[in-house]
Amino acid sequence: MFTHMKDLQFEAKPDGPDAAFARRLQEVLGGKWGEMTVANQYLYQGWNCRLPGKYKDLLLDVGTEEMGHVEMIATMITRLLDNAPLSLQDAAEDNPMVAAIYGGSNPAHFIHGGGGALPVDSAGVPWNANFITASGNLMADFQLNVTAEAQGRLQVARLFNMTDDPGVKQMLRFLLARDTMHQNMWMAAIEQLKEDGLEEMPVPDAFPDSAELTEQFSYTYLDFSPGQDAAQGRWASGPAPDGKGQFRYDHSPRAHAPEPVLPPGDPRLYGTNPGIAQGMVNTVKSKIS
């Protein structure tokens, strides 16, 4: 059950309108790594979680918090659009700088949204539910959540350097602080899964009947680049992070199967097939003769 508090988690009020920055801010609202994505991702992971208790609470708590971030950013975008010029003539009446800001605005903010935020990214592409992942495997999901928070922090930090508005910057500081907590939190949750003996890798590192393939391929780094720079990496020698094997380095990977030769295609599918084409020519020639 959800309830809505009228108060925001943190102030979302710019010092002045800026329609062009409102367009940029849409990225951390409705972009691939925006707040709409992480809010829905964490909630669906929580709803799909089959472990009652701390893990389910963790997912639903953070998903609910992220919904609050959606509201904050939508509010900020709407306020940035207040009193924005609606035509180039209106913009030019003020000064060239305002005209430039008008040129960088998103017309859909006014045509579709009536001067409000939209569920789109900074290019105006609608938010897509395919952005979210809720696999049912907590280790796999938590690792993706670390990535989502890292990308979110990166985008917030970039936006911070694209505005001089003190009010906007203060909200971005808050979002960066919370995303920092969330990224560390998901990394801690990964370690907690290991301590609880629930997960080590997102899926089995090998099937029971694949000992030979495991020995040959599970811990071998295949270098397909010139030189041997990759051999200096932590991934080319020493113990693997899962504690089950030793990394090996192979500078000259070899093929393990011959070149594939496919059988003739189904003629009913009209694919390009030299064998069938030649056969049809021979058939035609035989009929003519």
From TrEMBL:
It comes from the Bacteria. Pfam families: Mn_catalase. Residues 245-257 have a biased composition (Basic and acidic residues). Coiled coil: none annotated. Residues 230-276 are annotated as: Disordered. Belongs to the manganese catalase family. This is Manganese catalase. It comes from Micromonospora qiuiae.
